[in-house]
Amino acid sequence: MTSPGPGTASPGPDHNRGPASPASSPPSPTGPADPDITDPGDEPIRVTTLELFFDLVFAFTLTQLAALLVHQLSPSGALEVLLVFGVLWWMYGGYAWLTNARAPVRTADRLLLLVGMGGFLICGLAIPRGFGPGGTETRVALGVGYLIVVLVHGGLFYRVNRNIVRVTPFNVSAALLVIGAAFVPTPASYLLWVAAVAVQWLSPLIIQPGGRFNFRPAHFAERHGALVIVALGESVAAVGIGAAPAGVTVSVALAAVLGLALSAALWWTHFGDGDDERAEQAMAATDRSRQAGLALAIYYAHIPILLGVVTLAAGASLTIGNPTQPYSGGAVAVAGGAALFLAGTAWFRWALRIGPITLRLAGAGFALATAAIGATVTAEAQFAVLLAGIVGMLVAERYTRTRTALSSPSG
Question: Domains in the chain: how many in total?
């Protein structure tokens, strides 16, 4: 992931986020002395509407990954989803670090960010045939779209923090590997994709981003939380898409409502209990020299969360259209998606030391077990049992927290 650099806020008001921070803000005494970094100071910035627009475009790629899994629910399909998600999520993180360094309030920044969004859109359009035989043009389009994403990001970030030159060569190399994968047979293309993912994901071991980039914790936490909400919204859309062809019968309506309730329960596990706010506080309390490592931990923890949403959306599309019929593939996808999401929230808590994880891991195991219900009974039964299990987990967490608070000396 390209690491964020601190930037200066643009002078003048931004109607998206209130008054901008002055460019002449004094440097923080705890900030790095690296001359390539422009210290952003301690002034908070909010997620702008353009960033939310960006997230909606990125969410389209998640929707396309879910569609790919629907049409190819197999080990090879799962591998393709992992590989494409691997490179796309890496660069989403790069743009999140970028806008954390400097909000996109200047016209040139906004226009270039829109170009980057266009690159993500091209990638999303090409995903369904990104690996298929005979689709060289589409596979090239995926790689070219990704190269656009990488080049725009590197150019924008260089204006904020020149340390990005340590990172951009890795990202460009990954994009060229993806383009090269379009010209070789499918088995060999997998190897090039694996190399692209490895080049980027292992780059922090070489770059050592700690101390080279500064953060605004409030913005960083809010940006990732906003994407999770958008992604969950896409899972709700998948419920509607799966239900539409069958018409609105009692069974379809019941399955759709249960699917919505399940998405809401997953939302509650991450936002209803204040984990996002505690994450912001934990990051703000961390020394700046260690914030890059903590940001990477947040980034990695969101991988199972978002893959869980993608998998759950695929499962919902496969099962809700025929809710009264058992379907093992869709049942496994629903169970696996919920389990991944819960495991991701446990990882998130563990990485930031913001809450217990035992019940979350138990909930993930319970979610996996519900696949047997969907495969042998009905989708409604699986959704209902899975929903009850997540609600029970949340109640148990609330009870444990309340009991601990009452038994503490200050309680």
Answer: 2
Return all residues near 410 (Cβ < 8 A) that are at least 6 apart: none
Give me the domain span that covers residue 273: 217-407
- Say whether both 54 and 147 belong to one domain: yes
pLDDT tens, the chain, 411 aa long: 444 433 333 334 443 443 333 333 333 434 444 555 555 544 557 889 999 999 999 999 999 999 899 888 889 999 999 999 999 999 999 999 899 888 898 999 999 999 999 999 999 999 988 886 667 888 999 999 999 999 999 999 998 888 888 899 999 999 999 999 999 888 889 999 999 999 999 988 887 766 677 778 888 888 999 999 999 987 777 677 666 666 677 877 888 888 889 999 999 999 988 888 888 888 888 887 777 778 888 889 999 999 999 999 998 888 876 655 667 888 999 999 999 999 999 999 999 899 899 999 999 999 999 999 989 988 889 999 999 999 999 999 999 888 877 876 654
Please check whether residues 197 and 64 belong to one and the same domain.
Answer: yes
Helix (H, G, I), strand (E, B) or coil at 19: strand
Sign of CA pseudo-dihedral 280, 286, 291, 296: negative
- CATH code, domain with 267: 1.20.1410
Both tokens of 310, joined, read 């993608």
The residue with tokens 């601190």 is: 6
- The answer to whether residues 196 and 246 belong to one domain is no
Residues present in the chain in total = 411
**Same structural domain, 124 and 239:** no
